């Protein structure tokens, strides 16, 4: 890539930012019902700096490393085994390099864009107050989901960093074997900036249990004219959150933020890039299903860090997330196997591995809300739907989603997101919806309203599909215009290992 | 001298090798090959994408024998490689003009 293309990219990036600024305030006004009154933030009763629990800290450290294991080598092997021999290293390089690139962007401005107050754009994206990790050191802390429980902010940043790193890597499966490495890097930098960080902010940014609890306590304690002021302060705390969070949508570990987001971006990418040369005419069987099976196994192992770590604490609740993640995945693997056995005559290894991933995807948003039996049902349901998408609908529509990122991650993510809204129902064994305000300082359960909850879940799904679908289309097109997305026909036939990287995966 | 080229099912290789060794023949060259005859191929399915695989894995044996032993060798290979199922393979026989053993320089039948 020449200096001139880099300069052009930078210019385009700036322009895109300006567009985002133009669009966002308009959107923000639509949602003005929940806008924050201009009250001073609660400075009330901030006691001594909380000391993180050592057990929680150690647990989160391990959980973060497990999520790294999901990406490399888990996802790289899972995808790598599915491509042809000539593109094996290309798959590995794209996953590794994206991981490295996003890790750096995350500490430069990503964490800040996702997890700080974004001022006027706060409904959609955070600000730059913690850019370059300003103000963060080894004594600062991040809230969890329990009152008075904290983990070191550095550990929280790394945990969330692993999520930001794996999500763009998921897209790579949809555009495998035909995306130029240089264009891939530029696209990924843009994608996390304009798609991932905002969506993570919309879904996951909120004040935390203690901010809610303290403000609610202040309201209870205040009398007379101070009451109104305290109420305003409480409103400010509850409205200082991403818009999807305020809708009440539940997403425990990233059904919308990670899977629907990456899945729809993958579909858009596959459509914009077009099919691989020879798709539908030449055989393109996986070059090593053994590597794919190993990758699927590592994904499953790592996913315990992903899901269980998302509770941010090592407690009994983590145990519930743990068992949910385990059984939903097993159920989905079995149901994919059985459906394929009936429909195609044989239970295939790739089918079972696909079921494992579909189950993990579906339980991701639900694992902190559903009961164990509910998780099994969710696992049993997700695989047949994904199976139909991967085997029938994809070929009927003719798009080349190389490794079924849309069929497994987006469709599985939608099933999971909607399933979460049902399975959180305490009558069905769910946890119910957390309420930090009724008894300030204590976690209680709010009344469950199926219609309201399903509406919130559907809105979260729709928001993610639109933001990521439209945004990714713009970014893919942009990179295509500036530097071209696809290698030449000759290079694609030769394989990206040789043409992009100058190496072969196997020399024997 | 004759070159016997036999294409057989891979799992029959060991039986064919020991049958030829029993005849006193020393040495053969084996290649992993793909091909099809009347057996045609089979279908592989990857997440619903079906591929017709026309070329099946086979083993190609090449062995050069003195003219006197050709019939016995052919019978031995046929006996050892036969399952009675379609796809057992074929044997081709062709004439060899000249043979040299590289180490000693011996020629023709002496070199076999």
Which keywords apply here?
heterodimer; A: mainly alpha; Ammonium transporter fold; two-stranded antiparallel sheet; 67% helix; disordered N terminus; B: Alpha-Beta Plaits; 4-stranded antiparallel beta sheet; 2 helices; elongated
Characterize the structure shown.
The complex is a heterodimer of chains A (508) and B (112). Chain A has 17 helices and 4 strands. Chain A has 508 residues and is an all-alpha fold. Chain A has a single domain, classed as Ammonium transporter AmtB like domains (Ammonium transporter fold, Orthogonal Bundle), CATH 1.10.3430.10. In chain A, the strands form 2 sheets. In chain A, strands 1-2 form a two-stranded antiparallel sheet. Chain A has a two-stranded antiparallel ribbon with strand order 3-4. In chain A, 52% of the residues are buried. Chain B is built from 2 helices and 6 strands; from the N terminus they run E-H-E-E-E-E-H-E. In chain B, a hairpin with a 2-residue loop joins strand 3 and strand 4. The mean pLDDT of chain B is 93.
Topology readout:
The complex is a heterodimer of chains A (508) and B (112).
Chain A: H1 3-30, H2 54-82, H3 88-115, E1 141-143, E2 150-152, H4 153-171, H5 181-204, H6 209-221, H7 225-239, H8 243-247, H9 255-273, H10 289-309, H11 316-344, H12 349-366, H13 372-397, H14 405-423, E3 433-435, E4 444-446, H15 450-483, H16 489-494, H17 496-501
Antiparallel strand pairs in A: 1-2, 3-4
Helix pairs in contact in A: 1-15, 2-3, 2-4, 2-10, 3-4, 3-5, 4-9, 5-9, 5-15, 6-7, 9-14, 9-15, 10-11, 10-12, 11-12, 11-13, 12-13, 12-14, 13-14, 14-15
Chain B: E1 2-8, H1 13-22, E2 29-35, E3 42-46, E4 49-53, E5 56-65, H2 70-81, E6 89-95
Antiparallel strand pairs in B: 1-5, 1-6, 2-5, 3-4
């Amino acid at each position: 890539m020449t200096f001139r293309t880099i300069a052009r990219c930078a210019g385009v990036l700036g322009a895109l930012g300006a567009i985002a600024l133009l669009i966002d305030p308009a959107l923000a006004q639509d949602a003005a019902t929940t806008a924050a009154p201009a009250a001073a933030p609660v400075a009330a009763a901030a006691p001594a700096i909380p000391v993180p629990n050592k057990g929680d800290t150690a647990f989160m450290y391990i959980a973060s490393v497990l999520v790294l294991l999901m990406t490399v080598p888990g996802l790289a092997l899972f995808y790598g085994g599915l491509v042809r021999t000539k593109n094996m290293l290309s798959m590995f390089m794209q996953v590794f390099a994206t991981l490295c690139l996003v890790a750096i962007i995350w500490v430069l401005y990503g964490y800040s864009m996702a997890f700080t107050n974004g001022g006027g754009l706060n409904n959609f994206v955070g600000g730059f107050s913690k850019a370059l990790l300003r103000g963060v050191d080894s004594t600062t802390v991040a809230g969890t989901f329990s009152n008075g429980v904290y983990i070191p902010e550095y550990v929280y940043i790394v945990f969330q960093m692993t999520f930001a790193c794996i999500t763009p890597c998921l897209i790579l499966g949809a555009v495998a074997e035909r995306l130029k490495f240089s264009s891939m890097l530029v696209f990924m930098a843009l994608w996390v900036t304009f798609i991932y960080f905002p969506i993570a902010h919309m879904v996951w940014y909120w004040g935390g249990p203690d901010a809610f609890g303290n403000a609610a306590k202040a309201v209870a304690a205040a009398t007379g004219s101070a009451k109104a002021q305290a109420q305003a302060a409480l409103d400010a705390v509850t409205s200082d959150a991403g818009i999807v969070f305020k809708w009440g949508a539940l997403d425990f570990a990233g059904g919308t933020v990670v899977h629907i987001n990456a899945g729809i971006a993958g579909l858009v990418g596959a459509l914009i890039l077009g099919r691989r040369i020879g798709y539908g005419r030449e055989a393109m069987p996986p070059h090593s299903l053994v590597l794919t099976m190993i990758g699927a196994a590592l994904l499953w192992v790592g996913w315990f860090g992903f899901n269980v770590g998302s509770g941010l604490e090592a407690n009994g609740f983590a145990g519930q997330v743990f068992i949910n993640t385990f059984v939903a995945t097993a159920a989905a693997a079995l149901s994919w196997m059985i459906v394929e056995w009936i429909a195609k005559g044989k239970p295939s290894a790739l089918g079972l591995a696909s079921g494992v991933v579909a189950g993990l995807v579906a339980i991701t948003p639900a694992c902190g809300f559903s009961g164990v039996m509910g998780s099994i049902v969710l696992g049993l349901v997700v695989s047949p739907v994904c199976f139909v998408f991967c085997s029938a609908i994809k070929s009927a529509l003719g798009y080349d989603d190389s490794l079924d990122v849309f069929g497994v991650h987006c469709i599985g993510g939608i099933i999971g997101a909607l399933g979460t809204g049902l399975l959180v129902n305490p009558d069905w064994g769910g946890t119910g919806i957390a309420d930090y305000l009724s008894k300030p300082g204590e976690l209680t359960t709010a009344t469950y309203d199926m219609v309201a909850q399903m509406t919130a879940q559907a809105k979260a799904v729709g928001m993610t599909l639109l933001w990521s679908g439209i945004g990714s289309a713009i970014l893919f097109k942009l990179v295509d215009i500036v530097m071209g997305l696809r290698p030449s026909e000759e290079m694609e036939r030769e394989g990206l290992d040789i043409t992009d990287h100058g190496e072969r995966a196997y020399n024997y | 001298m004759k070159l016997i080229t036999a294409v057989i099912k891979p799992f029959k290789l060991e039986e064919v090798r020991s049958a030829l060794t029993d005849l006193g023949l020393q040495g053969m060259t084996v290649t992993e090959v793909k091909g099809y005859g009347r057996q045609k191929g089979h279908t592989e399915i990857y997440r619903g994408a079906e591929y017709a695989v026309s070329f099946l894995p086979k083993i190609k044996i090449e062995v050069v024998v003195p003219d006197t032993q050709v019939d016995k060798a052919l019978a031995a290979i046929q006996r050892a490689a036969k399952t009675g199922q379609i796809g057992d393979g074929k044997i081709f026989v062709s004439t060899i003009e000249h043979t040299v053993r590289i180490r000693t320089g011996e020629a023709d039948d002496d070199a076999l």
